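Feature request, filed as a ticket because there's no other form

It would be nice if the structure record came with a short human-readable summary line next to the tokens. Right now we just get the raw output. Example of a typical job, pasted below so the devs can see what we mean:
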Amino acid sequence: MEEGSSSVFSVGDALEIIFEFDETGKISYANPEAEKKLEYENGLCGRSIVDVFPNEFKAVGNAFTTEYSFDEKPKQLVAYRGNLTCFPVEAKIIKSGSTPETYVCMANDMLEKEYLKREIAQVKQEAEHALKVKSEFVANVTHELRTPVNGVLGNVKELLGEEVDSRTMKSLRMIERCCVDMNKIIDNILDFSKLEAGKFTLEPRRFHVREMLDYVKGTHSAKITEKGLQFFMTVSPNVPEYVIGDELRIKQILNNLLSNALKFTSVGKVTLEVLKTAQMDDRTELFFIVIDSGIGIDDADKDKLFQSFSQVDASISRRYGGTGLGLNISKQLVELMGGRIGVESQKGKGSTFSFSVWLGSCEEEKSTEQRMDTINPSRYAPGETASFGQEESESGDAVKQYGTPENREALKKALSKLILCVEMENWEKAEMFMDTIRQLAEGAPQEVGRVILRLKMAVQKENYDRITAGFEELKGFLQAEEVHA
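Raw output as currently delivered:
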């Protein structure tokens, strides 16, 4: 008993009820918490286990009987105080292994836990009700706001059709733009409210990927022209022609990212790229990249980007406008479509936003071999293309098949030309050879595809260190494959 007791006496400061009783049921030790909770006038020591748990233990002569199984599994019991009132406990009673037999009871008062559980349930219910009321209020207010805004917009459009002087026309155009911006803010608030309340649902349907991208490009063409920026859009040849997904929400994400890119870019270019990165049964993962040469973001501020009502800097909100909701909504939409969104940026050198979404495949999808990359020809010097060039004409179809000797040779040549262009800081040609490398690597293992994607992004950001690292990594893959061939 000495050995068993020592382990009990060492837990005198425990916050749970602990006491020890012998084979007759007599309690020989109780910790302060047990004395406090059970409130026996002269203390627990000397009392019987039958007094504490009369529903589980019965007195039989100088001993006790019970159907309780003495194991490590906690059980829900009712403990009785000295004044015969009771409270629920979660108890574990085990044999201590000493001779004569000794038992140790460890129990937690469930009364406070149940009370807190009820309190938590009530608070949760009240919070859900408050959220519902808030969501309904936001929806009602935004709908009420939309009515006068649309009224003003309608009257302005009528006036724009009439002959007015240039000063009045300028004012009307300004009112029209303000109304359009106000409607965008209202839409963002409604979407955010639905997402926050968990009532937002996607509406997947079959749509044409390239037509959707052309529409997005057309939406921003006026702003691109107005700011005098270059705009490039590239679609990988293996991107399906048709997919099944929520076209409206993908447009919304792209419009938000492109609007930000155009807003924060004064000179230079904006690029939109679309790639197919994975295929799982009837599901296709598409990867979108939006690159700009704008103001960029500090590493320390990146975490703020996707938070609600958050701008990286208050001065940005004052200078460029915005509610700080767009990227948060985009993040939630991307996650609803099973994807992820991220950003790479450097202060003063632009930003690269990328996101992926999982979409359904269409059975009637045409062969990818019949599709060509959608590339702005002004991106290349006269006579140059983003296809396989001379390597293709020399080696025929074998060069297109990843892993063939002809393909590896073409990749090596393209890599050599790429690194030469980088060393000479001829970035336009570097991007051309990067596109060649990407097309030559169609069908490559996933890890190779990831390296090429990182290398391409590094080339577009003109990041020499990352280009060098990606070049060496890709070169290592090719050498390893050549050894195993």
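Something like this underneath would help us a lot:
Confidence is low (pLDDT under 50) at residues 1-9, 366-395.
The first helix runs from residue 2 to 9.
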